[in-house]
C-alpha cells in the first residue's frame, strides 16, 4: 500500500481520528494506563485508517478492544505473521478489522490499522498497558505520556514494512485535527507531597485522608507539542516491599500466568565508600546529526538539543577525577574522535577538550551509532581503568535493536550511561543500551534538572563496584521461587531494584509468611537487606504484576523481529501469547463479523497525520546560503561514507559536511523528512518536501 508523503499544506480530507483520551492510575510506583482512540468516518466511502504513535518502551501492552455501535470486540494476541494474514483476509471479505502492533525496528513505536470503517461509523479503540515508574535524582517518580514521535533516520536496508520507513503525513501543530485529554489518579500509603508537570494541569484534588490519594487532569486544549510529564513526590519512596499476586485460575499451573508472581522492590542502603583507585576510562559519544539542531521543545526560546547536550557534557568534563582517562567522539553519518586514543585527564587536556566541545555543531548528517560503538569497543583497554561510556543522543535511529545488541555483546567490558536529549527521544534506544550494560539512563527535556541528572550519572560511574549480588528466598517447604528478571550484577547507591519471581509448588495455608534477602559485597564488606511478606496472594483482575513480570522477561529475550536469536524466539512467543503482553513477534487482531452485510465499495486509505513541531527558523541552512530546509524536523542528511579521522587541535571541523557536486543539496535530493537520497537509495515520486 502506498502512503501519502510530505507536508500537508492544508487539510484536504477529513481525518478519521478525532480525539485521544487517557485514564491514568498510579499506585505507588506502578502506572496503569487506558488510552482510547476515537474514530469517525465523515466521508461517503469506507476507509482504512493508519496511525503511528509513540509508547514508552517499558510499557506492557496487554489489552486491545474496539467499541463499535455499542458492541465490544476484544482483540486476540496472535503470532504477528498470522495476525497480518487474518487482517488482510478480513478486509478482503468486507469485515471490519483492527490491528495493533509494535514496530519491527523499535520497541517504543506502535501502529494501529482500522480497516473497513463504514461511512458515518464511529469506533473507539482502547489499549491498556502497565509500567514501572523510574525514580528521579530528587526522589520523584516520573510518568511520561509520549506525544512526540520524531522522524527516525533511515539506513540502507531498513525493512520496508517498518512503520518508521512509511512517510506518514505531518501537519503544522495548529492544524492537528485531533486532541488529547488525560485524567490521572495517584495513590500511595505513604502520602503524596506534590505533583508537578511540564504541562498545564487542573488544580490537584486530594481524595483521601492524609493525602494518600489525589486526582489531577490535563488542562483542556492540550496539543501534541510536547510529551506529557508528571513528577510525583511521595512522603516515602525508600521502603522495601514485596507484593504477591494470584495467578489466573483458569490457566494451567506451572505456567507464568497460572502461578502466583512476586514483585520485589528494594532500595538498598549502600554505604558511602572510599573512591576506587581505578578511576576509569571515560568515553563520551556525542550525537552530531542534523536533528540535534532541533529545539529541545516547542517552548519559546527553547535551546537546540546540541546545546543542551554540550552543556551536560561540559558539566561532566569539569567534574572528572584527576588521573582518569577520557576521549570524546562525535557521530552522524560519519564519526570523529578528539584524540587518537584516550588521554590522561589533567588541566591541559581538560581545557583542550572544553574548547573543542564548545565548537561542536550538529553538522554530521545522519544518526549512525553502530560504527563508532564498534570502534570504541575495538580499541585497547587501559589496565586498571574500566571503561565507562556516556552517550548523548536524541535517539532518532532506525536500527535500534542492532545498536542495543552491539552494546549487550560488550556488556561485560563496560557500563553505558545514556542521555536522551529533547522531546521525543527514543526510550527504546536510551533505556535499552543502559539496561543491557548494567548502566543507567536519563532524559534531558529541560534545563531545570539537567545538572542533577548529569552529576548523578557521573557519581554512579565513579562508584566502587558492588559485588556478589544475590537474592535468597525463605519460603515454606514445597514452595520455590523461579526468577523471571535478569540477574543483577550492578547496584548503584540511590537506585531502586525491582525483580520478579514466579512462585511454584503448593501455596501454604492462610497467614503464612515468607522472606527475601538481598546480599551484596562492597570493598570487602558484606551487606544484606531483608524484607518479610505475606504469602496470601492478592487478586487483581488486570494481573498487573504478572504483566510487568512478563515484560521484564521479554525485555531480556526479545531483541526485535530480526535480531532475536532463534533459540529465544520460541520463549518470546510463548510468554507473550500466554500472558497477553505484546512483543515484536505478536500483534493484537480484532475482527467484527457481526455486520449485517460486508462493507461494499472501494476502500480508501487515510494516514493519520503527526504534528510538525519545529519552526523553519530552527532549520540548518543549505550550503551556499539557501533557504532553510522545509521538513518535519531538522534533517539527518545522509552523507557519503567517510572513514574515522583524528581531528588535530587546528582542525576542529575537518570533516564536516562533504559537498555534493556543486556543494548544494537540491530539493529532489531530499525525502519528506529532509533526508538526502544517497547512492543506495532511489528517489521516489512525491518524496520531496512541499512548502508550508
TrEMBL record:
Q: Where is the VIT domain?
A: 1-131
Biased amino acid composition, Polar residues: 674-692
Tell me which InterPro entries the record gives: VIT, VWF_A, vWFA_dom_sf
Region of interest (Disordered), ranges: 642-692
Question: Pfam families from the xrefs?
Answer: VIT (PF08487), VWA_3 (PF13768)
Q: Can you tell me which residues the record assigns to a coiled coil? A: none
Which SMART domains is this protein grouped with? Answer: VIT, VWA
PROSITE patterns, per database record: VIT, VWFA
Q: Where is the VWFA domain?
A: 281-462
**The protein, known as:** von Willebrand factor A domain-containing protein 5A
Tell me what organism the protein belongs to. Camelus ferus (Wild bactrian camel)
Read off the lineage from the record.
Eukaryota, Metazoa, Chordata, Craniata, Vertebrata
Q: Which gene encodes it?
A: LOC116661078
